[in-house]
Every structure is written in C-alpha cells, then in structure tokens.
Amino acid sequence: MKIGELGEFGLISRIASGLADGNGVITGIGDDAAVTALSPGMQLLTSTDMLVEDVHFRRAWHDPYRLGRKSLAVSISDIAAMGGIPRWALLSLAVPPETPLEFLDAFTRGFLAMAAEHGVALIGGDTCSSRAGLTISVTIMGEQEPENIIRRSGAHPDDDIWVTGTLGDAALGLELLEKGKLPSPMTVEEQERLISRLLDPSPRSAAGRALAEAGLVSAMIDVSDGLLADFGHIAELSALGGTIHLDALPLSPDFRTVLPSHPSSHPDLALSGGEDYELAFTAPAANREKIVQLMKKCGIDARPVGIVTASPEVTVLLADGSTYAPQNKGYNHFT
Amino acid sequence: MKIGELGEFGLISRIASGLADGNGVITGIGDDAAVTALSPGMQLLTSTDMLVEDVHFRRAWHDPYRLGRKSLAVSISDIAAMGGIPRWALLSLAVPPETPLEFLDAFTRGFLAMAAEHGVALIGGDTCSSRAGLTISVTIMGEQEPENIIRRSGAHPDDDIWVTGTLGDAALGLELLEKGKLPSPMTVEEQERLISRLLDPSPRSAAGRALAEAGLVSAMIDVSDGLLADFGHIAELSALGGTIHLDALPLSPDFRTVLPSHPSSHPDLALSGGEDYELAFTAPAANREKIVQLMKKCGIDARPVGIVTASPEVTVLLADGSTYAPQNKGYNHFT
C-alpha cells in the first residue's frame, strides 16, 4: 500500500495510534491545537529542525527506522544543550505519494522509540504530499526552571571548554558511506559503529539536564556543525575566545583504528565534522572533578579540551604549542 | 543576490533582524532553543502547518509578501479555533538555492506583518537548502486559561451551528486563478477580492478568543477544508450529527455576483470549498443574541447555519426541506 492510497486522515490516525497518554498532555493529536501544561515554575524551551531528503539524509543510506529516531534526536539535543527536560514534539511530513507504507511505519516506530527513551510525547503535526522527496519538520518543546537554563552566552574567561563523548565519528561514518567501506585495518563492525553515530545519534539529554541542575556549567551548545563552529557560537555570544588543544580531543577506539590509513583527515574530522550531537560546554576549573563524577553517573565521558580566553579569537593548538589552521570551519547548508 | 550566496547564518540573521522584544520572550532566535514564559495560570496551545510549493501554493499566483502572511495566518487560525491567544511562532524554510533574496525579504516582511497584527513574536526556526521547491513549516504557540479552551468535542444536541464571515470565497478565488479571470458580470476588483480571500486570509483570532472567554460556545474549529468536512470533525468528536441549511450559508456580495454565471458550483463551493479560515462553532440557542453582539464588537459577522443533532449523520437541507447531496466532501492532500 502506498501513502497516496491511505490519504491524509488515514496517515494521521496511523501515526497517532502509536501514542501514549500522560506527560502533561491535556489534549494531544486530533484538535486544532494540542493543549499541554508546563510544570509549576518552569519556562518553556522550544526548537525546530527541518530534514530534507538528499540534503540532510539519503534514503539509500538511511533506513526509515533510524531516520525516524534521528529526526527527533537532533531536536532533543537542542533541549539538552539548554539544560532542559524534553517534553513534547510535533512532527510534520511532506511525503511523495508513491512512498511505501512500510517506510512510514518504520519511520514512525523509530520516532516513537526515540520519544519514549527521552520521555517525549508526540502531540501533533501535519502531513501533506510532496512533489519531490521527503521533508521532515520536527518541533520540540521542553521545560526547565529559569535559574537552570544554560545559554551560549554565559562563558567566562579561564573557564574550561568541555566536550562529552567522542568527536568526529559521525563525520568519519559519512566518509565511509561516501567512499564505500574501507579495506583493513577496519573490521565491518568498527565501520558500522561509526556509520551508526551518523545515522542514529544519541542526544545527551540526561547529561545536559544534570549539568544544568547541578549548577556546574556556564555555557552550553550541542555539537551539530563541528566543535570549532559550535564553540565559536559560545565564544561569539559570550564576547570571548578560546584555545582548543587538538591532542585533547576525545577520539573513539574505532576512530583511532582508522587513523593510520587516514592520517591527514583526523584533525578536521574531529574539529569540524558535524552531527556528533555531543555537548560542548564551559565551566569553572574548580568544578572539574564534580563534572567528571556527574557525567560518570550519566554513563558518558566528558573531558576538558581547552580554555576560554578574554581575547576573542578561537585558536587550535598542536601538541608542540604551534597553531593549527583548520581547513574547514563547519557545515553550511547552502554551500 | 541569491540565497545560496547569503548562506545559512546570513539568512537567519536577516530574518531575526526584523524582530521585536517582549511578549513573554526571554531568549529568542540565536540559542539552541528559545525560552519563553507562559502567563500565570495558562495552558500551552501548539499547532504546526506545512506549506509545500505546487501543493499548497504556486509562486506564479502567490506573491511572496502574501505567502509570508498566509504561512502564519493558517496557524494563527488554529489557535483562534481553540479560543486561544497566539503568542510565539517558529518558521522553518527549505529554500532552493537559486531563490532571489528579494523573494525571501518580501516573504519575511509579510510573515512579520501578520505576526505584528496578531501579537505573535517569531522566536526561532530553521533554514536549509531544498532540491526542489520551497517548503514552509510554521509552528505556533498560544495560551489560554484551562476553562476557556474550546475543543471540537464539546457540542451538545440542539446547539446552533454558527459560522463567521462568508464561505466559498477562497474556493471561488482558486477557480478564478485556475480558469483565468471571468468576463462580465464580475469586475476586476470583485475578482481580486475573491482571490485575496485565498491568498491572504484573515484568521479570526480576536473573535475566537472573545467567544471562548465569554463562555458562549461549546465547540469550535476553523474552516480550512470546507464547512461540511470541518463541522464533520466537530460532529465526530462530539459523537453527534447536524443539519446544515444550505440557504443559510453566508455568501459575500462578490460571491453572489458570480452566482448567475456559475449556478451549479455554488453549493459545493460554499459547503466544501477550503481555505476560508473562518470559524465554525456550536452554541446553545439561548446565547444567540449575545454572540451576534460580541461578533459585532470584533468587527465580523456570524450567523447560525444549522442545528446539532443527536443522530450522528450530517445532513444538508435545501430551502424546500429536501436533502442536498454534496459532490465533494472536502480537500484531501493525497488525492
């Protein structure tokens, strides 16, 4: 069965049938607008992302289940970067009528699985026909107490610059998809894990919230366009700069395995490769041990990779103290 | 200059530069998520709409200023239909890189003009490249006290069925665009007014809110897919039916002018023509006079067009009491 045969209202019912109640949802899908209630004392956090076929994803690479997961994951990551608690999502799809229903079902399963993992309820959306390619638009709403909301603008000179997890894996996964699987020394499993970082990212929702509620961090952003570009936003909005130590960047064992065969690509993949959806944040040096402990509780690693500076440049240093000139400053959707 | 030359961040700054402060906005565009504060005691209303080029609009017909206005108007209309107060909007655009910057500027002016007219602040969005055609995704958030929120499910047997404004104008405007301008008896001005109902609808924001806050209505919806289909949603969710009197449907003077040359199309255009963005609502007969007075204060007409019935069918009656069988039950985006 094709989506064109199911019709608009059939498509909406099919998605809505996967939903759970509760979670502050007073009226979900099925009225002119959804009705929800914020928890007492909370402010509302809102973000939206659009994913376009052959711009943000390719169906040849991205199975629909993981595409559904990622469509929500990138938005959850934005709420995490504010230190917020993700609550509700809206999903809009412009779908070519010839799309098989199995594709939509798997997409929806993936979206709702990601939602359930992070306590998010799907409360509305829109579906329509597309003339060319699938377009996905997701809006997420979260909440947090005003004093715990972390902005890009809060960094201070001499704060540490931190990142969670590992960097460059998603960019290397993209390179594997673009160039085809690499021969030895990588195993197929190692390659699949890197590709999975690109196709099925894990937003750092618990970590971002925990850091914010513990009052340990001064500024935060998620790493979607590469650390250099994304820390650049913190620097710009805080009217500061920073020094990043290239050899401090956290690299996964899989990434390290491929290094010998790709020595030249390493610095730029880890510095400027997009879509890792880790968190980059700044924090006073005095909080260093507490942050490591808190992140351990959240089940992820985090490490300092540099220092915020009063002078407004962002500089990358090599192990010998010399300056590294990155080739690529991050992803621009129009170039 | 083309959008591809401006780049993603240039495009975001260009849109953000048109924004005003205030309106419950704590942090607007420029962070991972927007931060807003609901007014005390209010619940959150949320709706989202996607507009796809050559599905919902054609650039040959729709100038960018009015397209910008309409992109937000259809979402404001959803908040109006809940009796809510529109507050904040998110705007996402997938834009072909060859789009002229003048198009985007005019679109944004139109969007922000509609926002200003209804007290809405643009607090975020997303921009990306599209391979084929412009796709617009708008999310709107509003608020209202829980006891004043009007749902589709609240109708009672013997309630009047009401509509605001006039019906069928937008559908007739679409017919004029599709078939080319009509010869006499219509003047160019009359035709332009009908076309404008399609291209630049006025959401009934003040009227919907006033009706809700006065406690006069039991169920409400906006007329986007035609009265028959949209009242059908009220009937279905209220587990009731209704009788609509065809000769009670409010028709504009422009619509009446064209009637003699289009006699056969009248009933279905006014019953099932989409995109009028009027409100359809139900109310106890005892409220009739108060509703007329309240709508007069809001500067629009409203009139009863039928009665809610306990039996679940929706029936359309002609002046002689016989049943009219509509040819078209409303617009389905996939057929």
UniProtKB/TrEMBL annotation, chains A, B:
Q: Where does ATP bind?
A: 125-126, 152, 224
Q: Where does substrate bind?
A: 56, 275, 331
Residues binding Mg(2+) 2: 49, 78
Pathway participation: Cofactor biosynthesis; thiamine diphosphate biosynthesis; thiamine diphosphate from thiamine phosphate: step 1/1
UniProt: Mg(2+) 5 binding residues:
225
The residues that hold Mg(2+) 3 are 32, 78, 222
Q: Where does Mg(2+) 1 bind?
A: 48-49, 126
Under CDD domains, the record lists: ThiL
**Entry's Pfam families?**
AIRS, AIRS_C
- Domain PurM-like N-terminal positions: 30-143
Superkingdom, natural source: Bacteria
Answer whether the UniProt record assigns the keyword Nucleotide-binding to this protein. Answer: yes
Q: What keywords are assigned to this protein?
A: ATP-binding, Kinase, Magnesium, Metal-binding, Nucleotide-binding, Thiamine biosynthesis, Transferase
Q: Which reaction does it catalyse?
A: thiamine phosphate + ATP = thiamine diphosphate + ADP
Task: State if Magnesium is listed as a keyword.
Answer: yes
User: Its Enzyme Commission number?
Assistant: 2.7.4.16
Residues of the PurM-like C-terminal domain: 157-316
Positions of Mg(2+) 4 binding: 32, 47, 78
What the protein does?
Catalyzes the ATP-dependent phosphorylation of thiamine-monophosphate (TMP) to form thiamine-pyrophosphate (TPP), the active form of vitamin B1.
Its UniProt miscellaneous note says: Reaction mechanism of ThiL seems to utilize a direct, inline transfer of the gamma-phosphate of ATP to TMP rather than a phosphorylated enzyme intermediate.
Task: Give the family this protein belongs to, as stated in its UniProt record.
Answer: Belongs to the thiamine-monophosphate kinase family.
Q: Read off the NCBIfam families from this record.
A: thiL
- Could you identify this protein by its name? Thiamine-monophosphate kinase
- Name of the encoding gene: thiL
